[in-house]
Structure formats: C-alpha cells, structure tokens
C-alpha cells in the first residue's frame, strides 16, 4: 500500500485512470454501466490513497464516472471496506461473524485490543494500526478464525501468530 | 432501483380494489390508482412526482391475480396494475403487514411529538394513530443522529428521520442538484451530505413539505406556531412571471409560513425558495410604517389625511406650473393589476402618458406590442413537452425557477434545450449547446441562427439580416440550434431577463420573433416581475391605454433621458429596480417632486423623495397578477398592513378622490379588476415583435453585464432575512475572464474599482471562465452594486489600490 494519503489532491492519476478504464470495459457502455464501475473505482483510488477515501478523491471518481458526488459518498459509506476518514497506516479487520466467532474470534479481538491498547474502531496513538470494526463475513470460514490486514488474508489465527503479524507491520 | 411509471397510458386494465371495480391506465402503480379513487393506502416514501423506491414498506397490500394470492403482501407504490388484479388494502394480512412496518419505523423514532415542530401535521404521527401499538415493545436504546447544517432555510433534526428518501429523490430528480444522499448502512443510515456542504438548490424548501416527519423543517418558521392554530389563505407568489400558487398560513393576521398550493397548470406542487421564504420581508424592521413628508429638508411623520392632501397639492401644483407632461410614473412590474390601472388612470387624468412598468428594459425601440401582452405563447404546463427550446439572454433557473424546472423536465424527456447567453451559467440541465457570446454580439449570434434556419427550411431569410451579419455564414453551433428548432414537433424560443435588459433588446425580440415564425415554433418572453402582462392590460405603459387606445408617452428610459419635474414611484426602489440605477438617482435628485409609494424605507428614497407613502405588501393587500401565459390570478388580503401602511389601490383611489378626478368610486379591488377585464377583455399573448435594425456605433471596450440575483429581484425578497442569509444573496462581485483580469491589472479575491456613468463601487474580483472576453458580470439587487449604471452597458474597472 502506498502512503500517498498525506498530500491530498483532486483528480485521478494516470495510473488510477488506466486501472478504472480496465474495469469500465467490463460494464455496458452507457451512463448506468459507467456508474456500475464505482465500487472497483473506489477500490483503485483507496489503494492509491493510503487506505482511505478523502472527499477530493471521491469527487474525482464522481467526475470521472459522471455521477453526482453524493451518489459516490453513498457507496463509499455503505460498504465496510471503504473508509472515508483517515485511517492508521495499516487496517486490521478481524472477522467476528459466525464461523470465526465459533472458533474463538472474540478471544482474538480481546487479545489484539489488549496488545495494542485500543478498542475496536480506534487507531493507535502512533498512527500505525487501525483496528476496524469488522461487521461482515470475509468468506474464509475454512480458515477461521481469520483476519484481513490491509489487503491480505491471515487464517487459523492464534495469539502467537497474531503477535508476529502485528509486530511485523511498520 | 426505482421506476418511473407513466400513468398517462391510454390503454386501460380493469382491477378491483377493496371490492370496487376500477378501470386504470395500464402500467400505473396500485397506489396511484387507489389515490385517484379516494382509497387511502398508508405511505411514507411514495410521492406521485418522484420515483418509487419502495423502501418504507408502509404501503404493503394484499394482491391476488387470477384467483391466486401473492405469497406475501406487495408494496402498492411499485406493483403495477394488471387486468383482473384484486387488491385488498385493509385485509387482515395487509393490516398486519402495515402494523408490523409501523412498529419498526417507530423503533428509532423519538416519541416526543409535543416538542417536535411537525407535531399535528406529521404523516408518521397520523399513521401511528391508525397503525401503531399503544405501547412500544422496544426497550433498547434508540439511536441518535447528529444534525447537519443545511443552511439558513432548512432546519434538521435527523434523529427523527425515517429514511423515506423523498428529499434525496427530490434533489436528484426535480432540483437536479443531488445534494443529499443516504449515507452509511442499515441502522446507521443517515440522510445528509456527508461532507457538510449544505443544500443550495433554488427549490430546496420543497423538501420541508416532502419530509413526512419532523426531520426537515422550515428554519424561519420553526416553533413559531402550531399547524392547528393557523388559518390558510390562498395567495399568489409575487416574484416572477409564473405566479406560483401559494397558501399563506397565518395566526391572528401574522403570516407564519408559505407553502405551495397545488396547481398542475402552474407550479404543480412545488414553489421556489424565493416564493416560500419571502414572507419574512413583510415583517422587516425596514418597513415604512407611516406617511413621511419632507419640509425644509426635514422629514416629518404625518397622518394620512395630511399626506394625501400634500400629495394631491404637490401633483396639482406641478401640473399647473409645468403641464401634465412634466410628470412621470414608474411602476414596479410586480405591482398588482389594480394598482397599475389606477396609477395609469390618475397620471393620464393629470395629462401625462408617461407611465411604464418595464423598469429593467434596456431598449424601447420596438414600442408597445398592439396584438397582445408580452408573455408565453406556450403555456407553462406545455413547456415540459417541448422538443426544442432556445433560451435567448436568460437564466430561468434563478429568474423563474419553476419555468426552469419545466424546461428541465422537457430535457429529461428527450427535448433539446439550448441557450444563447452573454455568460455561462450554473445550469441544472444540459444545454446542447450553451452558446456563450459577448453581450454585444448576441443579436449577431441570433441572426446567424435565423440565417441557418432559413437555409434548413429552404426559404428566403428575412430582409435586412445583412445589416447584422453581412454575408457571414452560420457556424456549427448556430446550425445545430437552427436544425433543432426547425426539426422540432413542438419548439419554443424564450427570451429571458438579460434579453429584456439588453441595450439591443428590441433587435433580440425582432430576430427571435422572426426565428420562431420561420421555424414554426412559439415566441415567448419570460417577463420581469410578477405582472408585466398586467402592466400591458392595465395600460400602465406609455403607448397603450387599458382600452387599447394608442397614446404617446415617455418610456421608463425616456423619462430619465428627458428628466421630468416630478415622479411617482410605485413599489420600486431607485437603486435596485431599474435598468440604470445611476440615471434614476440623478433624475430623481434633480426633480422638484418625487412621490414614492413604498413598502420599505431606505436611505435612497429618503435622499430623493419628497413624500413617502407606506403601502401594503404580500398578504396585506388584495389584487390580481396576470402571469406570462395570461392567467388572471386574484388573491385576497390576509392581515392588516404593518403600521399605518395601506393597500396601494386604496391609497390611489383616495388620492384620485382628493384630486377630484372622475370615476374613482371603487369600494373594493374586484370592481377595478372587473373594469380592467371589461376594457382589456380577452387579449392574449403578443405573437411578434416590431421590426428594428441594428444599433449604430461600436461596442464599448468593456461591457458590464448584470441582472438581479435570485433573491434581489424586488423589495420584498431583498428584505427577507433568511433569503438574504443564503449564499445566493452574497455581495456583488466583479466576475471577469482571466485575460481581462490580466489586462486590467486586477486579481481574483482583490478589490476593484467599478465605474459606471458617474457611479462607483468597490467590489471583490472573481476571475472565471464563465465570461467571454470584454464582459464583466456584476449582479444587481445585492449589496455592493446598488446604484450602479446600466445592467448591460459600458463599465470601467481598475485595481482599487490601497486607498480606494
């Protein structure tokens, strides 16, 4: 993940446009089809923007896809994987849905909270880690309990394993 | 996610609702059919003018097709009727579903109706009475939503929101600004802007009416009255040539709020913010509350008898010494028909034909039309079915917001809306094309479209076109506009306020008239004020009496070019309501007698007038406005005028009696109305404009282009506090093109000195690409630009420097 989130500018970079254009080829070539690319487009922009979506960048997506900005904000706030507020350098999402819960996710959460000294939804004081309040199943039940760190899955978690993963985060 | 259903389908199906057999248009939603037949289905999210998202689930009904019941109750707002359908809105299953939905809606809704502004007129409260449980089973904590600031007009209490999304859909579909959205998800859903941008639409107040609960309420009205203690009186909005139908809600003679009165032919169920919130101006501290007379340079408050006698003496004296011709009458185009008629009759009885209501007009060469009043040949309701509309010199979004809404509807149905304007505007519809030319080039741009249209039709172009454009051939934009107009089944050319204020406005009217005739489309003028058509009918024009007799008087401009010894002003403020404020001030300053009938006191009136007579304004007087399509709309007074103010028609009648003029025995305004009706009769909209040629002389190097800002059009809106607190009433700025800014040595955000015909202002510069080179936009009717010269005319700009 790049750390471009510090100097926020409007508009889309050429790389972002190229990636979004790739997605656009998979949707019908009409206004509604173009707007259908909003979710992948937001993923692209969030990826290039320090893991969150500043308003300027959402407006740029709206502009690029010919949508009203409010329609983009709706999508960005609807889905848990998008963040519209500045996050820590790393986002840790621990699944607490049914399979993981049955395999001890609550203990994992408690362990991480204690280790980082923060509660779900908070960011460590040094801005290193945001512990996200994960709401939905991440579809890796075979490896429960699991978590998503930034854009990578970690399965079959134990406190020891988690300590190693978290300690390795810069 | 949502469907727009055409209920005008001529094909019908037969259905049964609650045992009643009904022929319904195919494709119509059940709820619309039920509404039409007086069968009430509870609902929150459904609104007949908006798309149906079916998200509140309150309208669940039992549906049976071919004897087979649907497995679950279906939402009536999105289930369309089909032949043989049987609908039960009050079956046990439907009621159970509706009660269940209601219970969920009330889970997070505060149960504190007594402290909610919506209490007593709340759809949720009403339906909870019928469908809610008397005791809540919900014992957990209710959610709380933080409020957003949506600006000076709309108060929010978002904890009360039930997420019907009517406001979201209105701003998306009708206002076209898409400023609100349903942010977040599930129990965390919040209606808002997310980014705190407020709501700026010119129609924003309608979301107050649409909101079924107390989440969005009127900020000025909030907590000042209860729905059940107010009386409602029909009225007509006095700000533009549409004449939106309104209801004035009053308590003991004080107007508490204004809401739309449904009239599909005029305003549908909407009104603009200007129409909704201008009533605050009635209670402005700047109201003129008693007659004032200036004696030996001192102002004296006097009683009415003294004031009327002084006025009559002043008029008699002036006429005796200088003749009737020395008198000029300048009447607001938003005065009532009755006021205009009496003013014109009094002036004519005193021997003067110098009377005009066309105060912002820039060009009078075409005189007064004989065949009808200026207005809309295409009725308002039919504007939305136009295939092609060409706007010439106008920004209806701010001038006539609901006419703009009709044009936007036309565009959404596939019509083509085009404009020739001296600047780019912030439209909420797509113009194809938006043809921006320097103001001085507008007649030429229009002449090119005319030449192109003649080519398309294969007919000879009107004679004299060479005078504007020589042998120049149409460019692509002109050709496109001509193609669209010529190919339209229904088309219209619409002249706006900037065409009216244009120094070559008569040319624009002539060329637009020719273009309309050649293409077989209608010729329309979006006229200034609420009653320009009434001015023509009442004979408050220099060239026409109410009975149609031709007269020879001086126009509004003529009365200033050849200054009169005395003036009578009615409802117009010299520094704001004229084409050329600088010239008005000069003429008034030099006149012997200035009698101003005014609702508001102002330094400018105190400086120039000799007698000030306080008149009634909105809700305080009865009268008639004739809108641009020729609809005579009469309204009654609601309460007593503030202070000693009097309805202007009554005051004019008494003045005429004191002057001992014949035939002024009216007891009520409807007698005056009937008299105008009898003489002006069935006159319709003018169909063409007189032939004029191009003006001589080169265009000035730098041209000021301006028109009153949306909330600066008349004294009433300029004194409405909440409207004036919105960003649409921001102080005037000098907007100009980057190249001009560089050439003149002024920079964005810095102060500039503006000079126009001896008047001066110091304004902040805004550099923008919206203006072509050589044009400078300075809005009128707002702080900073009062008293400047012509709305469209030569201007000098220089950096203000440190000491300016």
In summary, what is this structure?
The complex is a heterodimer of chains A (170) and B (804). Chain A is an alpha+beta fold and 170 residues long.
Folded structure, characterized:
The complex is a heterodimer of chains A (170) and B (804). Chain A has 170 residues and is α+β, with helices and mostly antiparallel strands. Chain A contains 8 helices and 4 strands. Chain A has helices spanning 14-24, 31-35, 38-47, 55-64, 69-78, 98-102, 105-116, 159-168; strands at residues 90-94, 129-132, 147-149, 152-154. A 4-stranded mixed sheet of chain A has the order 2-1-3-4, covered by helices on one side. In chain A, helix 1 packs antiparallel against helix 3. Chain A starts with 13 loop residues before the first helix and ends with a helix. Chain B has 804 residues and is an alpha/beta fold. Chain B is 27% helix and 19% strand. Chain B contains 24 helices and 34 strands. Chain B has a 7-stranded mixed sheet with strand order 15-14-25-24-23-16-17. In chain B, strands 33-28-32-29-31-30-34 form a 7-stranded mixed sheet. In chain B, helix 19 links the parallel strand 24 and strand 25 (611-614). The termini of chain B are far apart. The interface between A and B is medium-sized, with 11 and 14 residues.
